[in-house]
Amino acid sequence: MFQELNVFKAAHAMARHAGERQALVAQNIANADTPGYKARDMQSFAQVFDGDAAGGMRASRAGHLNAPDGAGGRPGFESESPTDPNGNSVSVELELMKGVEIKREHDRALAIYKSALSVLRTSLGRA
Length: 127
Hints:
By secondary structure, the protein is mainly alpha-helical. It has helices at about 5-30, 45-55, 90-125; strands at about 40, 75-80. Helix 1 (about 5-30) runs antiparallel to helix 3.
């Protein structure tokens, strides 16, 4: 009965998105010295959520919904950062700033989840 509450689904989706985005940022930092590596990023959760509200369908993998071959697979997109002479586009400072932003998004998702759980427990008389 309570597993269908949208607030829990939204908090879960927000936390999962933050985890996936943090993994991309960590991968970027790990490849900061790799020649030719292009930094990758994902849209913020708010942008993704707004996109879902429009009701449009998105390709989740190559070949899905007649998507081009590059669609799907690894999440995210290549950032348009300027490249170094060796072709690398990773800025460690920018990636660290993104990491802080992502941590805040994850903390916000946990706060929403805890708050909703507290309201649910209070309504059941199990405070």
